[in-house]
Design goal:
The protein is mainly β and 355 residues long. It has one domain. The strands form four sheets. It has a 16-stranded mixed beta sheet that branches. Strands 3-6-9-11-13-16-19-22-25 form a nine-stranded parallel beta sheet, with no helix packed on it. Strands 1-26-27 form a three-stranded antiparallel beta sheet, with no helix packed on it.
Length: 355
Amino acid sequence: MAVSVLLIGAIATLACAAEGATPTATTVPTPLDTVRPTPTPTRVPTATPTEQPTSTPTPTPRTLSCGDTITSDTVLANDLTCGEGIALIIGADDIRLDLAGHTLSGPGRGPWVWPRRATTSIAVFAGRRTGVWIGNGNVTRFSTGVLLEGTTDSEVSLLAATDNFYGIYLIEATENRITDNFVRKNTYGIHLQMSNSNFIVGNESFNNLYQSPGGYGLNLILSDGNEVRDNVMEANVNQGIWIVASKNNLIFRNDLINNRPNGMDETSQYMRLEETVEDGREEVPEGLLSPMEMVDRLVAATGANEWYNSDLKEGNYWSDYEGVDADGDGIGDTPHLISGSREAEDIYPSVNPYR
């Protein structure tokens, strides 16, 4: 039975105000909230983010409304301000949603539901899809900025997610790429739950806020075999990277700066989760969230995570590393111990930031 998250009430009728194709000065994000350019590529040991096909012509920008379902490649032509519900629904496989620098704005963060899905309002939802690309714009003031549920081989990239409850949330999602996003001032930054074999690469997740618990840059719960590299997790009120009951994850070349703590790796924790209703997923119409039932239980995992790449002899940069680099090779001479019950360590701690 798969672990999932509570649907907080029925999704209400969407309230929407589609603005003009040319944003006014009041809709332009501040410099800290704009989408940052793709960083200079670093050494890539495994898979790389999917590139945009060059043979497919760019679609003509379209004016959309709140609640629209996207079934073909789409370039957004306008900002949207939406109420409760789902602002934009991905309604087909193998399509791209290019926000083209526009902003989707919601009604606010909604109730506290961690670690369950926050569904009072969602900027972009892709449920049980494959081959989807979402990005190049701003999502703000939603319960969830982007929600991938049961989605595979898809990518969220070049997105600024600010002032949401969750910035980006994956559940039961596999082999996706979360790349080069700017995740700031959410209650929670990037969240993976029951999501395996994903790539979390090149993101900046910082200043995410505290709401007991809260304020992490990245959280993995019951999520195995993910690769987390070349990210910056900085000045989050709680953990930079927090791993719970997850194993076989590879975490390296990340800059972990002034979080509390920078990293935490726990074998188990008692949580209030949701589980998918028996055979419920098969009965869900496309574009709708799966039904769930609540359960309180202890989640646990045996096995280890690697906070370094043993082949490349590269770990992470830790702002609180207390060791020295006596031989000047850029790697600390003693391991960095990571908080949490797993008693993990980074045996190749970098003494210099990677980015």
